[in-house]
Amino acid sequence: MPLQSSVRASKKPLRLDDEVRFLRSWMEKPLHMGAVMPSGRLLARTMAQYVDPDAEGPVVELGPGTGAITNALIEHGVDQKRLVLVEYNPGFCALLRERYPHARVVQGDAYRLRDTLWEVLKSPASAVVSGLPLVTKPMLTRLRLVRDAFLALAPGAPFIQFTYSVVPPIPKSLPGVSTEASERIWMNLPPARVWVYRKG
């Protein structure tokens, strides 16, 4: 019992440190940040459950920040060596390299995904997991991101996106694209939903 308590105690400051990092980055550049705080554990686990840990090919995460979703992917069974983490913020990139030394951390713009991943991916991705603030972007930017993600993905592999909005971040009526959504995650602050898009 004392061991569990000490483990819990050691985890809390790490989460608090991440929240401070997020808040500081948001205050410095609010338009570049998707959220003021890292994703909650339940939201991160929900996103990770849509990734097949045994599938071949890299798993690309867009906007990992301090690694809340990255942690959930690893706990779900995704080998750290398969992770390609695309992060814009250089401070978060340094932190991610320290926390996940076997992952590939790419400092770049996820909204220019084709250019960012051009020389990085050697085989089609088995999933793209996005923590980007899609609903804050014009629809044309969102559609271009999804198009570029599908170009990087193996056929039928998921593009996974969460949103705090009550409407989907990408229209459900895209030709040749199937869509599914999780239940609303009320335990996340603010409540969120995970959307999954697949192109056949």
TrEMBL record:
Keyword S-adenosyl-L-methionine annotated: yes
Molecular-function GO terms, alphabetical: methyltransferase activity; RNA binding
Keyword field contains Metal-binding: no
A Gene Ontology biological process term: methylation
Database matches in InterPro entries: KsgA/Erm (IPR001737), SAM-dependent_MTases_sf (IPR029063)
Keywords, comma-separated and alphabetical: Methyltransferase, RNA-binding, S-adenosyl-L-methionine, Transferase
Highest taxon in the source lineage: Bacteria
Protein name as catalogued: Methyltransferase
Organism: Bradyrhizobium pachyrhizi
